[in-house]
User: What shape does this take?
Amino acid sequence: MREIAVVAFGQTDHRRTSDESSEVEMLMPVLHDVLDRTGMKTSDIGFTCSGSTDYLAGRAFSFTMALDGVGAWPPISESHVEMDGAWALYEAWTKLLTGDADTALVYSYGKSSPGSVRDVLTRQLDPYYVAPLWPDSVTLAALQAQALIDAGHTDEPALAGVAARSREDARVNSHAQLRGSVPQGEYVVRPLRTGDCPPIGDGAAAVILAAGERARELCERPAWIRGIDHRIEAHGLGVRDLTDSPSTRLAAEKAGAFERPVDTAELHAPFTSQEVVLRKALRLDGDVAVNPSGGVLAANPIMAAGLIRIGEAAARIHRGESDRALGHATSGPCLQQNLVAVLEGEAR
Assistant: This one.
């Protein structure tokens, strides 16, 4: 099995609005950044894969416009997933495993500011029984949070502590949208307050993957992907236990996360209550640095936030701040779909 690593990671400064920039203009600096980090040109990339959603853009096949930022002529080997960029990374990883390419560029982006995210995300729901009721993403997360409270797994002060820690950690993240103290805030949907919910904002991210010796040529300390897997829960919310995430646990097991402890975990937990669920499913104790970047509570560019979690974990390995890290991405209501990647740096 080929060794594959993340050799470069870049992201935008995430902002509440980016009206003055198109998706292409938002992506270009990030794409140039990751290429510059490796000294590569677009023509050196063996495979390109992107993640985004037409629902945010409000037009079909919107991802084709973003290809202007990559440069699709002369023709390139390219693919797209209608998912968070973490799943695009999974596709690129499988492509490199086949030996068809030695390097891959993965990017994702999302502009949430033009519309109502809470309404847009209802399109993920079961189209027959749930979507017609229009329960929005915050309402469903509040149901999950209340289930956790009723089960005795957390309480409102503990959730507030998660928000405070995340925003405090984000102080050192120059790309974060929100930093510093968290106001108590009003209830958005009880028991979730403003600080328990992610910000709405725009942003993009990109990583470069490389295989074998090519990775060592491009990066001083590659973040080797030791395992990666993704699983999905039942679509019907009524048949799930919202206080647990079996799909996350299974993905982590298949990715090898439980073979040895990790020192860092970047969790894609858009709501404070979801960090409680993920910590339990991933068996994370107090010795693990959870979301040292501030996580999704500090910046939540939809369709890029999951890829950023893997990128942030890889970047800590690149900098020598971590030796074994876990990156997690989710999609769908109440942690419906989950992807787990385990990254390691070589011994120093």
Q: What stands out?
A: DSSP finds eleven helices and twelve strands in the chain. The chain has a mean pLDDT of 94. The CA atoms of residues 236 and 325 lie 32 Å apart. The radius of gyration is 19 Å.
